[in-house]
Amino acid sequence: MKQENLIFTPGPVKEFPEIIALGGQQxxxxxxxxxxxxxxxxxxxxxxxxxxxxxxxxxxxTASGTAAMEAAVLNLVAPEHKTLSIVxxxxxxxxxxxCKIHQRDCSIFxxxxxxxxxxxxxxxxxxxxxxxxxxxxxxxxxxxxxLAQVGQFCQKNDLLHIVDGISQFLTDPLDxxxxxxxxxxxxxxxxxxxxPGLAMVILSPKAIERLVPEPATLYFRFxxxxxxxxxxxxxxxxxxxxxxxxxxxxxxxxxxxxxxTAIAHTQSVAKLFRKGIKNLPLSFYSACMPNxxxxxxxxxxxxxxxxxxxxxxxxxxxxxxxxxxLSKTVFRVSHMGNIxxxxxxxxxxxxxxxxxxxx
Amino acid sequence: MKQENLIFTPGPVKEFPEIIALGGQQxxxxxxxxxxxxxxxxxxxxxxxxxxxxxxxxxxxTASGTAAMEAAVLNLVAPEHKTLSIVxxxxxxxxxxxCKIHQRDCSIFxxxxxxxxxxxxxxxxxxxxxxxxxxxxxxxxxxxxxLAQVGQFCQKNDLLHIVDGISQFLTDPLDxxxxxxxxxxxxxxxxxxxxPGLAMVILSPKAIERLVPEPATLYFRFxxxxxxxxxxxxxxxxxxxxxxxxxxxxxxxxxxxxxxTAIAHTQSVAKLFRKGIKNLPLSFYSACMPNxxxxxxxxxxxxxxxxxxxxxxxxxxxxxxxxxxLSKTVFRVSHMGNIxxxxxxxxxxxxxxxxxxxx
Lengths: 359, 359
Fold this sequence. Notes:
homodimer, alpha/beta, seven-stranded mixed sheet, four-stranded antiparallel sheet, 37% helix
């Protein structure tokens, strides 16, 4: 496959050379002290990066982010509880679908297009619920919610605040204490810039206390992960090679100044890009954009997916088409991972060239 | 981690240099024709390697083998059906546990220690059941069943024959037609010698026909994988880097003579090892050994796990301790993946050296 293409897709993202290189080594045996230490180190750094409350734990699943969303519902939402799902796009709908499949009593709230829930008045009718499911950043449309306000609403009304932060981790603020997050879902192939295959759920002590006692799952049973996690192990064979890459990447982030440096980098890349395309026939889809990804509307044509394919062919740069209803009008550009200012300038130049507009 | 150690563990196993190298490349974007073709190629080669009946399909899950076992139960065993689980060790018990968690009506049959079910008379009381779950090779004790006979029993009585062939694929005979297998579970880190992270379920047309219509799972819903699989895609982001390695490895197997060559290699390695240790204070645990792994009893001491740790320290060779009840007496040596005759002779020498016995 064309692994020399420059990718601006929101997972996989452009990775870091020293982390990529580690993928090219023999997978070691892992049921030993040395690997346990790797796992315990990863947990410690991740908890620090998201400012998790004392006593929090990280569940490492070998699976996609969707699996972690399903696992969170199975383990944290009891069948007798009422749950609110915030649905503003494909990933919000996925949370609602998961609740339906597992026969959870789920209310659905569709926010207005540019409502980021900075005002949570509209959530008041659901204040008697026990849990709230939200995609902090609804990646299909690049719409970011005000998690601090949603968290405050949850805390005031004692709802478990369950957040899919998959495309916010390391690129946009995620702070479990400031945003009152009880369970936070992240994955390997976004800000972490690793190959896909790992999804993590970070549980606060409150979430651990409220675990469903006998969830209808073996592979996703959090209590087994917590028990094995005490000695730095997982109940089933994990994606060892990706965990070793994660370990190195987390140490890299730590040595480079931690979460603030990581977020500041992506923010500067996103700003550079958004400023650089203002003369082009492109407009922003969302009014509440995260740093991680930009959703763009093509204003001079009606075939965004054809544009993405044609642009890749001409410039060897991969952008991301949207699916479903928006596939004709919207495409996305990721700023996550190892995307540099130089890469971004290259993209801006290529877009100007494509549209025949001087920079 | 010590990636230069020679590992004889049954997953991860010793990998092939050219496949390892491919892990050291940027993960490409995958929602495109090129990756679809990789997936379709993988399916075609896997179906050929296990002699799957025409119309069979491969479900590729990003998860461990246990997840694939659970997925098979969720999708293939209806709650109203009676299922038989053959339990002779830890992995058989896992199938039974999965049935219990998902409230399946499951009978358990414990074969006698050296019974490989070449005679299926003992299964007759279960002939009214709708499905049979078996670990073709119960890896915890290296006991291999006669799948052809079990398959014949299933076919005669119209039970769905669901086989965990995880530690048999490419090392021991697995033939869906000859052994009347309806669903076959395999994974990436055994005979395929890839990093862990992928598990596959190969479904015969009969299994596809009998899929549970609304299984209580999103991530493991086979119908979604079959729909997406038609165009060579998966419903959720898969472990792309490991799939690319699998593709190269499958092409390698094909070019080297296919399944017969692969099995013959592991068989010759296992024979060399078993013959080479006859003077040592070791005896075979099982009378029905597969080619893939040898379970050994230490006859001169009562601490197998200490022996494994001490042997690794002295010789930088990693063997596999058993868990549970057998941890004091039994350990295992894998012959899967890229273990060569030279590696095996090195192990035989090291064992003689360790025990102070001339070769």
